[in-house]
Design goal:
The structure is a homodimer of 235-residue chains. Chain A has 9 helices and 9 strands. Chain A has 235 residues and is an alpha+beta fold. The structure holds a DNA duplex (30 and 30 nucleotides).
DNA sequence: CTTCGGCATTGATCTGGATCAAAGCTTGTC
DNA sequence: GACAAGCTTTGATCCAGATCAATGCCGAAG
């Protein structure tokens, strides 16, 4: 079953994962669906196996991005573990493949199996650090810097120079970077100035030196946060 | 020893806590000291037993508040557990009483003792949720609303009407609420309009109805986040 | 091919809060 | 009491980014 292939669960005994798998339900959910609402009490632990999910804080009419969840990860395990209401709404961004486990079953498993508990602790710690990084990106950088660093990261990962495609609609990228589409659009146009050219959804680097001179990736903000599986130790 | 009195560690076997206590060092640190620097690799797990500590994200010259740690809690356990560099600088706000445990010792204990692992998981989950609440407060409310809700919460906790003292210097409160002292000062003056009067560090409510009509506390933002101890379960 | 509805661009304008610049206040020290 | 150093208040000005308003640009449906 899918859970068994999760890298950060590899130290968990197969027996435990099997027991969870028996109780689990798989679900495929199209983009745009709402998985749960803010203030709801979690009924399930939800593993995101594929696709992506946005978590949004809501206050009256406006929504603010809390987190972008990418596979394989849990959706707000903190609420499930502590038996507390979700602090955010979950909306599917790219068609999601979910594995649902009844909340009580999940908590019982964590309370029974030390290896599972350690894996979830590693996962929760990574989520915390991602949250901090998100906040730092927003508070410590201007809109232009956020865009610059985002694009620089994108280009570096995929192709040192060659043209790269934007992975999402622009309005969504803008939203994830914490600005309006208009501002994003203007900044993209202005990137010409720093050695980048954007036409449609294609990004081309024209002057990598200029780009690096203007935007500095910070590992403490931009590096992806890995989920570290902590080893169990015999007592 | 101090650790044994921590409410959220009460389900952890005394033997385990004793073993940690033996390896631990206590430390009293005056306000203003820096406990660790961003990007440092954690050498110790640090329990904050009394006082308070600010965590600050740093980028060149500017600092942004990441978290305000209040006792009893751990300072950035995520970094310690996952063997990764701190994402923030820690600066003592009010004289702190710390208990330090070598990082390796701490990780070994968590990997050995399931009950401890569950307690830390509860602690880490609570920290995650606090982080989310902090972010929502900042992104979903205007400066005026942040101040209004902060004061309303303060007044409600202490005395329904009677005058209340601000617990910190104004510049520090302003900083914690994510604005400059000037803005904070102006907003305090303007609170007259909504049924509150502030002179020096004393807050008086003149019209509770007006106050409540303007500012709405949201449990999903303003309620303190408790550390829930998860019970161990025999397998 | 045309039309329509959602994106994207571009320009003009607005605004919340920051920044800069003086004065007032406190508080502790000599 | 007088001074200094750090808070606080108040006013004037600035600015990044949002909002408002057209216009242009597809791609899908008929």
């Amino acid at each position: 079953m899918a859970l068994a292939e999760t890298p950060w669960l590899r130290l968990v005994p197969a027996a435990t994962l099997d027991r969870l798998a028996e109780q689990s339900v798989q679900h495929r959910v199209p983009a745009g669906s709402t998985l749960f609402e803010q203030a709801e009490t979690p009924a399930f632990a939800q593993f995101l196996m594929a696709g992506s999910v946005d978590l949004l804080g809501v206050n009256g009419a406006n929504e603010a991005l809390i987190e972008l969840v990418r596979p394989i990860d849990l959706l707000l395990p903190a609420a499930v573990l502590n038996r507390q209401p979700y602090l955010a709404r979950a909306r599917v961004l790219e068609e999601a493949h979910l594995v649902l486990i009844r909340a009580e079953t999940f908590r019982a498993a964590v309370a029974t199996d030390h290896a599972l508990c350690l894996a979830i602790l590693g996962c929760q710690a990574a989520q915390f650090r991602r949250q901090v990084k998100l906040g730092k990106n927003l508070k410590l950088r201007s809109a232009e810097e956020r865009v610059g660093c985002y694009l620089l990261g994108l280009v570096q990962d995929v192709a040192p120079h060659g043209p790269v495609r934007l992975p999402l609609e622009k309005r969504l990228i803008a939203w994830h970077l914490g600005m309006t589409r208009e501002t994003f659009s203007r900044i993209l146009a202005a990137m010409e100035r720093y050695g980048m050219h954007i036409t449609g959804d294609t990004v081309t680097v024209t002057d990598m030196d200029a780009l690096r001179a203007r935007f500095h990736l910070d590992p403490l903000i931009d590096d992806p946060e890995p989920i570290v599986p902590l080893p169990v130790r015999r007592s």
